[in-house]
């Protein structure tokens, strides 16, 4: 679809503005996941043609913006994160008073998410008082289920089907950290979609991604969670072992205030509208 609009724009149909909203950068995202295809060369050509002829390009993160700058001569590239159609259940949250750390991942269980790494660590390393609930569907769910089944520590991980948007808010609100996870280099081509869902419930995030991302800076500056590196297993293990202490240091009200200030539905829609119309 972007290619056909770009083509119409190029051949003289100039009565409209072509705004290319880039959610993932392909085929690079699939290549990063080890899924190269015979049509990658042609997809690259189509993508570059669409990018070149767009009046504006909107993407989701500073890392994705930098990637697109290397891919096209078009300089009209802007960042506007997606909003979430989510109603917070924060008022119903019951804060855990124990040393137990309850992690939750809610979303697509796919090849970009790298959840197998976290599951492997929780099953096979000495990470005490920490459990993980995974809710959703996706290409990697079957493999993760096999990892968990009959393992001596299988009780540490729950693998559940998708639930309604109302139910997911209430479930998230009763956990301690929301998991955001990507395979190595994927931050250059895609952006996690569930961050704001977690923050809307006032719970911090634990992010497993690349080094030196904009999200890493935000998490540390705003004190909204923990950040560890997807290609550094020992760093992830140490971060997990420190979560019990960290959850008592982080302020739920501060996390929710950050969400309202920067990432609420109203703020993100206003930013998107301003980006499109300016």
Topology of helices and strands:
Blueprint: H1 2-10, E1 19-21, H2 28-32, H3 40-53, E2 56-59, H4 62-71, E3 77-79, E4 101-106, H5 115-124, E5 130-135, H6 141-148, E6 157-160, H7 165-173, E7 177-181, H8 195-200, E8 205-209, H9 214-222, E9 225-229, H10 233-241, H11 243-249, H12 252-263, H13 265-277
Parallel strand pairs: 1-2, 2-3, 4-5, 4-7, 5-6, 7-8, 8-9
Which key phrases capture this entry?
Glyco_trans_1, EC 2.4.-.-, alpha/beta, six-stranded parallel sheet, glycosyltransferase activity, 278 residues, glycosyltransferase, 13 helices, Glycosyltransferase, Rossmann fold, three-stranded parallel sheet, 2 domains
Q: How many beta-strand runs?
A: 9
What is the N-to-C order of secondary-structure elements (H for helix, E for strand)? HEHHEHEEHEHEHEHEHEHHHH
Proportion in helices: 40-55%
Shape: globular
Q: What CATH architecture of the largest domain would you give? A: 3-Layer(aba) Sandwich
Strand content: 5-15%
- What integer value in Å does the Rg equal? 20 Å
The count of helical stretches stands at: 13
Briefly note the structural class of the backbone: alpha/beta
Average pLDDT level? 90
First-to-last CA distance: 24 Å
